Amino acid sequence: MVAEMTAEDSSKVEDFTQDPRWSDPVFREFIYASQQPTPPYLLQQLLTDDNAEVRESLAESPDLTPELYSALAEDHELKLVLALSPYTPPELLTQLSTDADAEVRLHAIHNENTPAEALEALALSSEDRAERMTALHHKNTPPEVLASLASSPDEANRVIAGQHPNTPTVKVEQLATDPLWIVRASTARNPDCPPATLNTLSKDSETIVRRNTARNLKTPPASLVRLAADPAPEVVRAAEKNPSYKKFRRWVADKAGIPAHAKPAVRERQVDQILRKQFLS
Hints:
Elements: H1 7-10, H2 25-34, H3 40-47, H4 52-59, H5 66-72, H6 76-84, H7 90-96, H8 102-110, H9 116-125, H10 129-137, H11 143-150, H12 155-163, H13 169-175, H14 181-188, H15 195-201, H16 207-215, H17 221-227, H18 233-241, H19 243-255, H20 264-280
Helix pairs in contact: 2-4, 4-6, 6-8, 8-10, 9-10, 11-12, 12-14, 14-16, 16-18
């Protein structure tokens, strides 16, 4: 058992490696966690620690130098930690994204800080489908890559492009008229889909396309009113749960002067009457 030591106590010690408790990995982890920023001598010491958990905690540090990152990247287990760390430099993430080990590459692709150039290379040239798909779904995937996917004969590529927020608007509009319903349904989920395009999708013949449109926060109020009266129950439920639709109904109620203290059922019924008259008649 490690003797109790507070952060205040630890700040008084100049060299923790001389402490008799240093041999205990729990103590070393505590010292590492309590020293922010971590002194260079501790970083060097912990880099070669014989305890894997201590080394892994070091790999997640925001205080590492480029030299220490390079040293850590020599260890397979630490590469896995580095590949997911939010502090790992972009240039090292690029390196890890081409690592010989598939697990390391996939971890790096999942990192939200992986550069667009690395993702583009993986999306276009990786022989591993999981890597390509992960790279294509990444938030940093370049618009140029997604624009190319939007014109692909492969429906799976068009599905990815349809729902990705980085896909150029002109391509999103194109995908909204795709002959395959699965592509249109994917496009209806795009958080940056233009309101006019969502209005078009709200009239789609396929239920799942209308349902996805009903869930989109950017769907225009008039379209949501229509979707809330859709013949398909799942579309109605999706529209009624949409925060944008709820906000619009509150605005209508306030604009119409319906008292806020009125019974909820009465207030909702009056709002329904207003919406039917204005949008559905």
